[in-house]
What does this fold into?
Amino acid sequence: MTFAYLLFFDNPPGADLTVDAGQKAAIREIVAATPGLTSGLIYTPETAEDLFNHDGTSPPFGLQLHFSDLPALEAAVSRIGHLQALAEPGLLSSLDGAKATQQAMYVRHFPVDDVVIKTPAGALPCSYVVHYPGPAEDLNLWLTHYIAGHPPIMRRFPGIRSIEILSRVDWCGALPFERVDHIQRNRILFDSAQALEAALQSPVRHEMRADFHTFPPFEGGNKHFPMATDTVLPVL
It folds into this structure.
């Protein structure tokens, strides 16, 4: 099983913030030293054109930190947990004014035909991160329908390397960021932003759109963001 702690920073109105490289490196060190961490993802903005969705600039920064169980995650974000370091004043001063939101979720992994990432040296692979704030009219029906129908279509995207569907859980934590309760998030991974864009311009994207119109009723819309993805492994 995999649980994820997610922390996203959104641009304030009219701004397009960029995280300082030194501050990003400091966050990377904090993440790598987290007790119980199995892997971490550090997100920064990328650009890829979608046939249907045009949700604006991607968030300037985000984290998706994986743990094998919920107690390990909750320990890391507790009042005395290691990840309290993320809230240190000035740590992310380059993102002052950004709105930070957090959530813990269960991560469902789905098969793809080729998991080998072929990103050129010195570059980063690219995730397409999707947020569904909700609510759904019937959450059980929503999840059941989505999980059964959408990932098999995603699998047909050319060059796809990973598929994750994240669903909400109840969780305890003490980090001082706004908590949100999205009904679902997705992440699909490609070798590069160019590979992601090729998939989003492929015939499979039309299949995805057609399936979207079969979803059970829900509110809140959705947001789609291409994000450069830096994988962090724990320091042993």
The beta strands are 3-10, 37-45, 61-67, 99-110, 126-132, 162-168, 178-179, 184-190, 223-232. The first helix runs from residue 21 to 32. Residues 33 and 236 are 8 Å apart (CA to CA).
